[in-house]
Amino acid sequence: MNRYPLWKYAMLGIALLIGLLYTVPNFYGEAPAVQLSGAKSTVKVEAAMVERVQQVLQAASIKPDFVQFDGGSVRARFADTDTQLKAKDALSKALNPDAADPRYVVALNLVSNTPRWMVSLHALPMYLGLDLRGGVHFLMQVDMRGALKQAVDTYASDARAALREKRLRFAGITREPNGITIGLPDAAEAKKARDILADRLPSLTWSDEPADSGVRLVGRLAPKAINDIQTQAITQNIETLHKRVNELGVAEPVIQQQGADRVVVQLPGVQDTARAKSIIGRTATLQFRLVDPDTATAAEVVPTRGGGTVGLKRDSIATGEQLKQASATIDKDQRPAVSVRLDDVAGRNMRATTRENLGKPMAIVLYEKGKGEALSVATINGEFGTDFQITGNFTPQETADLALLTRAGALAAPMEIVEERTIGPSLGADNISKGLYSVTGGFIAIAIFMCLYYMLFGVFSSVALAFNLLCLVAVLSMLQATLTLPGIAAIALALGMAIDANVLINERVREELRGGAGPQQAIQAGYEKAFATILDSNVTTLIAGVALLTFGTGPIRGFAIVHCLGILTSMFSAVMFSRGLVNFWYGRQKKLKAVSIGQIWRPDGAVPAAEQPDA
Amino acid sequence: MEFFRIRKDIPFMRHALVLNIVSFITFALAVFFLATRGLHLSIEFTGGTLVEVAYVQSADINRTRTTVDKLGFGEVQVQNFGTSHDVLIRLPVRADVKQTEVADRVFDALCGAEQGTRGTKQYLTPQGEQVSRPSCTTADGKEPLTLTRTEAVGASVGAELYENGAWALLATVLGIMAYLAVRFEWKFALAGIIANLHDVVIILGFFAFFRWEFSLAVLAAILAVLGYSVNESVVIFDRIRETFRKFRKLDTHQVIDHAITSTTSRTIITHGCTQMMVLSMLLFGGPTLHYFAIALTIGILFGIYSSIFVAAGIAMWLGVKRDDLVKAAGKGGDPGDPNAGAVV
Predict the structure, then answer these.
(1) B161 and B140: one domain?
(2) Whole-model pTM?
(3) Of the candidates B154, B164, B265, which has its C-beta nearest A418's C-beta?
(4) B147 touches chain A (CB under 8 A)
(5) Who is most buried in A15, A132, A155, A192, counting CB within 10 A?
């Protein structure tokens, strides 16, 4: 009766193999690598860069293990640090001809030493959290009121422009925290204004109320519109941060939204907070300038994205702070275009300039670290003000890039660092060894005790516990979870709690044997009857785990994820796997006389009164 | 081997009154210390700045304190952390100073006190990673101290964590109560949750009395142990129900005694194993896991105690009767009953 069908053994075997496959990458360690990323917003590292890097390395007769592209940067792995340094020099020389104005960041760091065939199966090591690896952590608060205020400002100027255009009389526009109020002389005018504005500014809900003199027209942002503004602000800020962080040449930066209005930035390996902060907090500036075709008389000559240069006239028409919006669209001829919107002041300036300079070129220049680069040079085809479009021979991807770069100058909303953590590299290594010692120490202690107390069943329990550890690490690696010190503590605790299931089973089997059951029946009954209790114990533990997962942030989340996963894997290993071992060992022996589960003590003949059922 | 050679049911409930009084006094003391001394919350909750530095020589705590005091950041705490070389400095939130600059200025001052100059040290690790870190070097090229870690938390973030922690506790308590109520009936649910909340309050009481630092990790430990020890009550309640069904002649007292006696072996071994793991964390885990492991230890020990004496005791005072459980037993003949099998 204690036999598993073949498919169950096969399943356990496969689980074991998969577990091993995904656990092993964690033990390969890391190898030296060179990472290449863009030094400026305008430099985009793409997959094609891999080939370039390979060529450069080949020319310098350096053989990398591999060169790969992973979203935003190219990394090449080398056998030793000498080759790594040589490769860095070769790449810097070839790709940054002007050392004073580098286009690429060539950084030394580490990549996992996992063999390629494992990587292709997505068998990768877990990420190590900052507390295990060293680095900086910033929690940045996005000023949502600032983002809303910006939006309200735009609505106010749009409303003013719309009413002026239709020559409606109004007494002024007041900005409210989440909308605008317009004073109008009477109900009739208010009606007209309301019709125009409802059409032009559909994201505001309009209502009118009587005021001291005339009527007050109130436009309020709908909750959905507020939500949209905030989502957009945070997304744009995260995009901008990504671009800037590239410049630090960090191997695995984490930039994530946390909650409604916060962004977490984690830079492993970075210790220099001052530099990290200056890069994250830097604002690039954007200028709209007229082009001077004669570079000799030009006030300034800047490179263009295509590789040429362009001369600029002295005065700036508009700046990045006056830019309200830049997005990729399709123009009326169905060509990809970038639509730009400026604020009122810049719009007036733009109108005056374009009127006088029809047919002449205008450039959008992005200044980063004091150096300018023309994002686009376009001919002025007509007179325009706040809203205009830039067209050219763009692909949709190019317009998306250009729009992004045009916005890159500014963060959508101001951000402030509300939490900052730095962890030294030695502390990280120290924490890893402490965590490992804790787990190993506890595991060995438990295993020794179980083996002594429950003999062979104890060995089965210990093997099952080891299998549990394997499964847990494998699942965490598969999920590419970030391992932190609280996470390791949770692994230890999960093991300490998981043994409960095996204790329950073993005690129950003993009890059955004590009651006089045959060995095979005792095993069967022991496993079956203990299962409900095991389920119970896991449910209560899981409730606490889920509560932690729901309300926890940062380190607590790491703990909670491991805690919950540990409960799930322990169900599998303690019940199914240990049963598999027991079945494999004892299941085929039909005339089993005894099982090795330690001493079965019987109160010498005298059964306690309560033990005698009276029914 | 067999540790538990129990011949007769141990009359746990005979002492229930005394033990419940002891419990109540411990509980009252815990509440008293919580109220008067309060928890020593980590800066994760209160906001503030933390700087950990490692000296090459044994650190002179007093000199460090004087140096930091001179900066005028308010009430500063300076203490050893782990070894005599490591010093931990805690600074409160100040409205007039930018939080993220405090750590830098503290390191500056400490560096100055050692006649060192601040700089940035760049080097390549043997593995091949480029590291640049703030450093403090003296004229003869030595580094008297290094910055191990810093942490700066704004007051608003801290307040939120505090709130979320409370929510997590509440959610756990309600979730477990609901589970117990479904699984058994309200008397057990109430008894189980009172018993385990009593543990939580006592753990907090310990932290208040000894002024141990209460961090997010400790909170996680408390919630984890709450879920863990409720399970203990579940096992005992299960046995009580089973015993009520099996032995009709025993009174409530005897039933509870029998249930507890027959689960003792499992209780002690399971908790012993978990405690071994926790002990390993306490020994090897270093200062970061220290209070985490302590909270777990107290939680596990009181978890055993409260499940046996407090939970069963309260269930008894609440007047658990055979009739309460016979309803469940009415359909108890059904072997497929999901509630029937949970026994040890």
Answers:
(1) no
(2) 0.81
(3) B154
(4) yes
(5) A132
